[in-house]
């Protein structure tokens, strides 16, 4: 037995383009590695465990034609085509993806806009500072990043303030968050607070983390 793509990407990035075009069984086989950081392969004569702690990044069009939301280009089946296309990805798989970001098409007019106030170098510096905070925070725990927080460590380092906790509880009920999604929202909120240089997770960090949960397809 040899390691596959998810193990070869250990401690790196596993990028899946055109996510719904993968076979559903293949995508669902990633659920365990995403959750545990390892792949267990059982055969009749052997049982092997490969490391597989990856950052999963996936991209997809909103529908098969890719023009959902554009009346001039969208197909006649919109928005049903988008619902059918996105349904190729199972709910449990989506539940394990922390950030769901919708990116609008870039127009010619967008290309003429001035550069953003914060460039890639500034963002990279902020990320490096956030990682340094996490390294110092988890020095005695064995964890490397917020993504590895669980149990008592999650409660110790990622519990939001009272306003943040109240918002998270309200959202958990309104959005019907699973226990897994609730835990992941705490990790994301902790990371957002680190990027902002804040020691305590606040309501604003929880609100931003919740904004990244998957929304229904647009009509």
What can you see in these coordinates?
The protein has helices spanning about 5-10, 25-30, 30-35, 80-85, 90-95, 110, 120-135, 150-160, 160-175, 180-195, 205-210; strands at about 15, 40-45, 45-50, 55-60. The protein has about 220 residues and is mostly helical. It has 2 domains: about 5-95, P-loop containing nucleotide triphosphate hydrolases (Rossmann fold), CATH 3.40.50; about 120-210, no CATH class. The strands form 2 sheets. A two-stranded parallel ribbon has the order 1-4. A two-stranded antiparallel sheet has the order 2-3. A hairpin with a 2-residue loop joins strand 2 and strand 3. It is globular, with a radius of gyration of 20 Å. GO terms for molecular function: ATP binding.
Radius of gyration: 20 Å
**Number of helical segments?**
11
- The pLDDT mean sits at 89
Class derived from helix and strand content: mainly alpha
Strand content: 5-15%
Task: Give unreliable regions as ranges.
Answer: none
Secondary-structure element pattern, one letter each = HEHHEEEHHHHHHHH
What is the CATH-assigned architecture of the largest domain? 3-Layer(aba) Sandwich
Biggest pleated sheet:
2 strands, parallel
CATH class label of the largest domain: Alpha Beta
State the share of residues found in helices, binned by percent: 40-55%
| Terminal-residue CA separation | 46 Å
Number of domains: 2
GO molecular function: ATP binding
Pfam family, one: Mg_chelatase
């Amino acid at each position: 037995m040899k390691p596959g793509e998810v193990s070869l990407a250990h401690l790196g990035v596993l990028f899946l383009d055109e996510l719904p075009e993968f076979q559903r069984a293949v995508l669902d086989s990633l659920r365990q590695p995403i959750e545990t950081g390892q792949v267990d392969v059982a055969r009749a004569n052997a049982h092997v465990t490969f490391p597989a702690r990856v950052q999963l990044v996936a991209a997809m069009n909103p529908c098969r034609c890719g023009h959902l939301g554009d009346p001039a280009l969208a197909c006649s089946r919109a928005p049903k085509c988008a619902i059918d296309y996105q349904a190729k990805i199972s709910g449990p798989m989506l539940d394990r993806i922390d950030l769901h970001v919708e990116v609008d098409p870039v127009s010619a007019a967008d290309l003429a806009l001035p550069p953003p106030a914060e460039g890639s170098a500034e963002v990279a510096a902020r990320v490096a500072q956030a990682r340094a905070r996490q390294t110092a925070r988890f020095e005695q725990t064995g964890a490397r990043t917020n993504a590895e927080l669980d149990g008592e460590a999650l409660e110790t380092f990622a519990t939001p303030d009272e306003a943040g906790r109240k918002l998270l509880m309200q959202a958990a009920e309104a959005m019907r968050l699973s226990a897994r999604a609730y835990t992941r929202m705490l990790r994301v909120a902790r990371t957002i607070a680190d990027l902002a240089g804040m020691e305590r997770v606040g309501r604003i960090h929880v609100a931003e983390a919740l904004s990244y949960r998957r929304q229904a397809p647009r009509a």
